[in-house]
Amino acid sequence: MIRIGDAPIVRRLLIGSALSLTGLFLVLPLVAIFAQAFARGVDIYWDNLSDQYTLAAIGLTLFVSALTVPINLVFGIFLAWLVTRFEFPGRRLLQTLIDIPFAVSPVVAGLVYLLLYGRNGWLGGWLDANDLQIMFAWPGIVLVTLFVTCPFVARELIPLMQAQGSREEEAAVTLGASGWTVFRRVTLPNIRGALLYGVILTNARAVGEFGAVSVVAGAIRGETNTLPLQVEQLYQDYNTVGAFTSASLLALMALMTLAAKAMLDRRAERREKNA
Amino acid sequence: MSIRIEQVAKTFGRTQALAPIDLNIADGELIGLLGPSGSGKTTLLRIMAGLEQADGGRIHFGERDVTQLHVRDRRIGFVFQHYALFRHMTVFENVAFGLRAMPRRERPSNADIRSRVTQLLEMVRLNEFAERFPAQLSGGQQQRVALARALALKPDVLLLDEPFGALDAKVRQELRRWLRHLHDELNFTSVFVTHDQEEALELSDRVVVMSNGRIEQIATPDELYRQPANRFVFEFLGDVNRLEGDVRDGVLTCGDAHLDVGDLADGGQELLLRPHEISLAGEPSAHTHLPVTVTAIVPVGAEVRLELEADWLVEPWLATISHADFERLDVQRGKRLFATPTHWHRFNAQTVAEPAAVAMS
Fold first, then answer.
1. Long-range pairs of A183-186 with CB within 8 A, sequence gap ≥ 24
2. pLDDT given for residue B359 in this prediction
3. Residues of chain B positioned with their CB less than 8 A from the CB of A189
4. CA-to-CA distance for B5 and B152, rounded, in angstroms?
5. CA A169 to CA A177: how far, in whole Å?
6. Which of B315, B321, B318, B293 lies closest to B307, judged by CA?
7. Cα–Cα distance between B249 and B262 in angstroms, integer?
8. Other CB atoms within 10 Å distance of the CB of residue B157
9. B54 close to B67: Cβ distance less than 8 angstroms
10. Test mutation, A168, A169, A174, chain B, max B CBs within 10 A
């Protein structure tokens, strides 16, 4: 007996086309990045990497993600907790509002922040008077990155926490546990997988964000250039190898993220099998 | 520890989950809250636990007013409907949770926790499963872990929400007996919620029957079955057969059927009968003529259940007869028999019970 759609020819055709499309559209560009980066040898690659401005961009990128990820981690848990554990007017609206950063183009987000905090913006005058610079400096970059990445953690947690319900937490409270103990010993272990996943996605986006950051950063070389901006600037300067060197770093980070995600998935699968 | 509930009420949005309710539970009693879904029984239980806040009224545990007390300070054990075991902890850690969550000053030493948990696991006969995870246990085992966990802090009051609802019949029977035994041995006060009348009658010292957020009757299982306070209680406690007809001069008539009803008042009347209160014969008697046709035969344990139909009946009757009678009458599908009520119940519109009459047969 052959199952429907399981004829050898159909199977080969489907697998073959899936593999070749994946290779053409996903793997080939990735290979091209590294090929270009190393096009003029490892020494040149290394020179480009240790360029003062590139190092500054790496530093800024890591700094932004180091700030963004913990803030959105806490914010995401808080939001998911609020939406899944309490009934209040506007709960559904809030759940929809969480998705705004997904719905809005990042460039628009950047422009909105510019409008709010820029020199001629609504808050700009006050900020200027108090000598606080947000736009064209790292606080602006962090702000837009926070905006763009804020749904990831909450989006991962909400369906899970909804499915799990609050019974275990209630049980913990009837056993005399304080709010913090309930969170630390019952809630957190149950959402750990989804939480890590959310963090990985947040980090990937925080590192790679281009549109919103490019609007508010002002592209000051060595000061407000993150890695993606650096890539674009080097390319504009006709320094192709330099651009691809920085791009290879981003690609490397992406690959590491994917590996981490795959590892988590595997672990979750194993745990499910044991359970 | 006795429980005193005074005028406790609860509304969710616009629906009234609990009308103001009074209930006194004596120290050491095992009380069953019985009712259909939406009757407010679970809400009442959760209010007792402090998991839900009442809109009004007071709750006392013994002399202690616990109305404003937080769940964690009420000294209750709560067993949830689907157990709500901590899925990422072993059985041992589940049971130890309450002890480990105590403030550092009062917390027992690790060795004490170990011996207490071991003792509890022995009590629920799960020692060998201490290192397993909840998902690796059967429903009945999970239920016992939930009980051990709830008892770990020696609560004054044990509250159980549909404790056996998700288990199969045989395990349920066994656990019921076991819980009754445990209750008598440890002598705490227990309240459990169920929608299964058999469970309520078998397990409880007293049963509280609820519907629509109200208490319909509080009585011992025996009283409840013999003297239901109203029609709702009567119907909820078992299968009911209806006989509607006009009474004139002591004879109830319904189509071509008639029945002597003694001194029942003239006019429209409705009689209610339990399945075992119908006796069947091959011939009509002098006073009774209730011809019925057998439409289904189901042998269940010690008796045989028959479904009876007749054109004078609005809905079919259910009768239970002994195997001996079954054979004597040579019952088959489609066989015509004559029914005689041995006993009937009547409730008037004010839902006040009237003394049941015994038919002359």
1. A185/B86, A185/B97, A185/B101, A186/B86
2. 41
3. 88
4. 26
5. 9
6. B318
7. 8
8. 22
9. yes
10. A174
Residue A76, phi then psi, degrees to nearest 5: -65, -45
Handedness of CA B148, B150, B156, B157 (dihedral sign): negative
Among B294, B318, B316, B292, smallest CA distance to B305 is for B318
- Which backbone phi and psi does B134 adopt, to 5 degrees? -50, -40
| Sheet containing B15-25: order of strands | B15-25, B3-12, B56-61, B64-65
Helix intervals (H) in B85-130 = 91-100, 110-123
Euclidean distance between CA atoms A21 and A34, whole angstroms:
20
Q: Higher pLDDT residue, B360 or B103?
A: B103
Residues 6+ apart with CB under 8 A from A187: A81, A169
Q: How far away is chain A from the Cα of B98, in angstroms, using its nearest Cα? A: 5
B194/B40 Cα distance (integer angstroms): 11
Query: Is B242's pLDDT higher than 70?
Result: yes
Contact A172 B101 (CB under 8 A): yes
Distance from CA of B49 to the nearest CA of A (A): 8
Contact between A176 and B102 using a beta-carbon 8 Å cutoff? yes
Token pair for B166: 């998700």
Beta bridge partners of B150: none
Q: Which residues of A touch B102 (CB under 8 A)?
A: 176
B133 touches A: beta carbon within 8 Å:
yes
B51–A176 C-beta distance less than 8 A: no
For residue A56, what are the contacts with CB-CB under 8 A and spacing of at least 6? Answer: A222, A223, A225
CB neighbour list of residue A251: distance below 8 Å, 6 or more residues apart: A30, A33, A34
Contact A177 B72 (CB under 8 A): yes
Whether residue A173 contacts residue B86, with contact meaning beta carbons closer than 8 Å, is answered with no
Tell me the two tokens of residue B358. Answer: 């015994």
- Is there a contact between A176 and B72 if contact means CB atoms under 8 Å apart? yes
Q: Under an 8 A CB cutoff, do A168 and B76 touch?
A: no
Would you state the pLDDT for residue B354?
47
Alpha helical stretches, state H, chain A: 8-22, 28-37, 41-49, 52-85, 91-97, 100-103, 106-117, 124-129, 138-149, 151-164, 167-174, 179-182, 188-208, 211-217, 227-236, 240-274
Integer Cα distance of B188 and B156 in angstroms: 6
pTM: 0.80
Helical segments of chain B, H only: 41-49, 91-100, 110-123, 139-151, 169-186, 197-203, 221-226, 231-236, 323-328
SS3 A221: coil
User: What is the per-residue pLDDT across B145-190, written as a single tens digit (0 to 9) for each?
Assistant: 999 999 999 998 999 999 888 788 888 888 888 888 888 888 889 9
Closest to A109 measured CA to CA, from A254, A201, A209:
A209
ipTM of the complex: 0.81
Residue reference for tokens 């990497």: A49
- Which of helix, strand or coil describes residue A255? helix
Query: Which residue of chain B is at minimal alpha-carbon distance from A173?
Result: B72
SS3 B340: strand
For residues A64 and A206, the answer to whether their CB atoms sit within 8 Å is yes
